[in-house]
Design brief:
Blueprint (H helix, E strand, L loop, with lengths): L4 H12 L5 E5 L5 H7 L8 E6 L3 H8 L3 H6 L5 H15 L3 E8 L10 E9 L2 E10 L5 H28 L5
Helix pairs in contact: 1-6
Length: 172
C-alpha cells in the first residue's frame, strides 16, 4: 500500500505556512485518510485526529447524524457526510475536516453500486461536497486507496484556493 508521497508532501507544506488544523471523519475509506495524514511530515503540528465509523448506528451516536436522514437515504447521502464533517470539526476542534461515507463493494443497500460521498469543511461550514462513482469492483483495498487519493487531491485544491482567497484579502 503506497500513498502518493508528493501529494502528502504538498498538503503538509500547505499546513506549514499557517496555524490551521485538520481532522477526519470517515467510513468507507476505513481509516486510510487518517493513515495518510499520520504519514505526513510534521503532522503533529496540524493533524488533530480522526474517527472511523462503520455502521449507521455509530454515525448517529458519535457524529450526531440525523437518524431520519439515514432512514430516508438508505444510510448514505451528501447530507450525512456533510453532517459528519461538521460534527468532527467540533469534536476535534479543527479548522478543516474531511468526511467520507460510501461503499467499496457492491451491496444491496447501495443498489450494487460503488460510490463515496465526501465533504470538506472549513470552520464548521461545508466548502466542497461531491460523489465519486466507480464501475470497477475488483479489490476493495484498491478502491479505498483510490477514494483516499482523489479526496486528498480535492482537499489540496481547496487548501490552495483558500490560500489564494486569503492572500487577496477576500473574506470567506
Amino acid at each position: 500500500m503506497d500513498f502518493n508521497k508528493e501529494l502528502l508532501k504538498e498538503i503538509s507544506e500547505n499546513f506549514m505556512v499557517g496555524i490551521e488544523t485538520v481532522s477526519i471523519a470517515e467510513s468507507v475509506t476505513g481509516g486510510l485518510m487518517q493513515v495518510a495524514f499520520s504519514e505526513m511530515t510534521n503532522s503533529k503540528l496540524f493533524y488533530k485526529g480522526g474517527i472511523t465509523v462503520h455502521t449507521p448506528e455509530k454515525a448517529v451516536k458519535l457524529l450526531k447524524v440525523d437518524i431520519a436522514e439515514i432512514k430516508n437515504y438508505n444510510c448514505i447521502s451528501s447530507f450525512i457526510t456533510e453532517s459528519m464533517g461538521r460534527h468532527a470539526c467540533r469534536i476535534f476542534e479543527s479548522d478543516w475536516c474531511i468526511a467520507s461515507y460510501g461503499y467499496c463493494t457492491p451491496e444491496r443497500p447501495s443498489s450494487y453500486e460503488i460510490f463515496v460521498y465526501y465533504s470538506i469543511s472549513y470552520k464548521g461550514n461545508v466548502v466542497f461536497s461531491d460523489k465519486l462513482e466507480l464501475l470497477d469492483t475488483s479489490d476493495s483495498l484498491n478502491i479505498k486507496l483510490f477514494y483516499t487519493e482523489r479526496i486528498l487531491e480535492k482537499f489540496l485544491g481547496q487548501l490552495k484556493l483558500y490560500r489564494i482567497v486569503k492572500n487577496d484579502n477576500i473574506v470567506v
